[in-house]
Amino acid sequence: MALLAVVLLMFGIIIAVFVGYRKESGNDEPKPSITQEEASVAIGKVHQTATRDGKTEWRLYAGSVRFVEDQKKAFFKDISIVFFLETGEEIYLSANEGILKTDSNDIEVNGDVVIRNADYRLKTETIFYRHEERIITSKVPVEISGESFSLSADTMQIDLKKKSALLKGNIRGNIDESTRF
User: Topology of domain 2-12+39-175, per CATH?
Assistant: First the structure.
C-alpha cells in the first residue's frame, strides 16, 4: 500500500509540473490521448517490505518498477528479495525481472534466477512465490549446489515454513561421500 501511495503521489507531482509548464509556455494545444500502458508510472530504485503479524517476511529491492493499477501488478527490473525465516535464517533471491501482484503479494521472477542461503545455491529461469503459503516453486529445470553436492531436477518446490524442498522429474546428482545430512 505504501508503494501505491508513493507511486500515485509521484504521478500527481509529474502532472502538476507538466500542467504548470504548459500554462507558462502558452502552449495550450491539445495532445493526443495515451493508452493505459503508456500512462503507467515508473520509478527507479525501489524498496518494499512485506510484514505479517508484525514480523518481516520479505524485503524487495529493484532497479526500477512500473505500476499498472488496473492489473494490480508492479513490474520490476533487476530484482532482489530477502526472505526471512522464523529461525532467523535469510534466503536471498535475484533475477532480471519480476512481477508483484499487489493484492496478494505473490511474486513471479524470470531470467537468471538465483536463490541462495549460507549453504546452498539454486539456479533456474523462473520462480513463483505464493505469499500466503510461503511456498516457492519452479516449473522449469533447476540446479542446486552446495559445498559437497550438486542436484538437478525438472521441477522444484520449497516450503519456507517447513524448511523443506521437493524435487521432481529427471533428478540427477553428485554427492561427496563425506557429506552428512
Answer: lipopolysaccharide transport protein A fold (2.60.450)
Task: For cell 530477502, name the residue.
Answer: 82
Q: What angle do CA 171, 172, 173 make, to 5 degrees?
A: 130
To the nearest 10°, report the CA torsion of 152, 153, 154, 156: -110
Residues 142-159 pLDDT 10s: 999 988 889 999 999 999
Q: How far apart (Å, rounded) are the C-alpha atoms in residues 91 and 111?
A: 18
Q: How far apart are CA 16 and CA 92, in angstroms?
A: 39
What mean pLDDT comes out for the span 20-48? 50
Residue 18's pLDDT is what? 37
Q: Where are the domains of the chain?
A: 2-12+39-175
What is the reported pTM?
0.69
**pLDDT exceeds 80 at position 10:** no
Return the amino acid letter for 75: F
The pairing of beta strand 149-153 with beta strand 172-175: antiparallel
Helices (H), 114-180: none
Q: Which uninterrupted H or E stretch holds 155? A: strand 155-159
Mean pLDDT of 97-124: 92
